[in-house]
Amino acid sequence: MAEAQNIPAGSTTAGSLAVAAESTTATRMSAPPSFDVADFPVPHGREEEWRFTPLARLRGLHDGTAEAGGELTVEVEAPEGVTVETVDRADARLGKAGKPVDRVAAQAYSSFEKASVVSVPKETVLTEPIRVSVRGGGGTAYGHQVFELGQFAEAVVVIDHTGDGVLAANVDYVLGDGAKLTVVSVQDWDDKAVHVAQHNALVGRDASFKSVVVTFGGDLVRLHPRVTYAGPGGEAELFGLYFTDRGQHQEHRLLVDHNVPNCKSNVAYKGALQGQDAHAVWIGDVLIQAAAEGTDSYEMNRNLVLTDGARVDSVPNLEIETGEIAGAGHASATGRFDDEQLFYLQSRGIPEDEARRLVVRGFFAELVQQIGVADVEERLLAKIDTELEASV
């Protein structure tokens, strides 16, 4: 991959092929977090948190005109010992991991009727993953899911999003002290689907949280993973890969809020883009509060542009309120497909389409390996191959 230098906000590379931006001040939202949709003004696209999002393609999720009535099927396959419940809005576990931070998340919280709560008892170590299927059947739907791990519990959760329709949702991950949770969230929607979701993780003392977000399908996908810590010693790893095709808008906006001492975070997202008007947005915010002494944090985003007509907006933000930290850093790079790598492989007798596949697979390999579920890894690599075949 040929890397490009970071580009100031608002500028473009030759041919308007990619855009990158960098700031040292974490993004500020236009309204404080709240469960009440009335606390958020209707966005107009000029707000910092909405400036990259094509509001007209949200199908009314942002202005209250999207009425629920669509089909949404949620199925949970859980190992023995795991409790799966369907609860109403009064359940005290809902919203425990964090409040909505924008109008769509608040709309989702105020509009869902039933929520799924998956609980892993303390000191339970699962040897098989919890598998969740979320399938849209058309129309607009709102959802809420909670995954709760007791103290020293360990689990892997795989969430598959497929089908069609418009979905706005909140997903909460609550980790007890010493717990370990790996979540793989796959967005493999049909071409016209819209998916907007806020992911909230509350990481307990000495707990470990790993998130792997994979985005392929959909007309518009906008995800907002957020991490806060409930005690010192917590660790969070946020990995992501996305393949943005012709006309798709895929947006990932992350916040890691270091609010207690001696916690760690590592963020690594990679994306590939191809086709006219393919648009990927990555916003990575890390806030290290004054009380969070001893923090160790790093975030990285890399993008590989395979064809002309694609655009990337990459904005890493780092805000530090204390000098007593172990380390903090960020990086962003966007580059075209490296023709020299392609030539090298072809000179060894490898056909062009196979050479392109090998380069892109190598670009994503380190993130795919973070999944740790063999059948999911194989399926995602096959999906990458299918996407590349479509561009040949």
UniProtKB/TrEMBL annotation:
It comes from the Bacteria. Residues 139-363 form the SUF system FeS cluster assembly SufBD core domain. InterPro entries: Fe-S_cluster_assembly_SufBD, SUF_FeS_clus_asmbl_SufBD_core, SUF_FeS_clus_asmbl_SufBD_sf, SUF_FeS_clus_asmbl_SufD. Belongs to the iron-sulfur cluster assembly SufBD family. This is Fe-S cluster assembly protein SufD. It comes from Streptomyces cremeus.
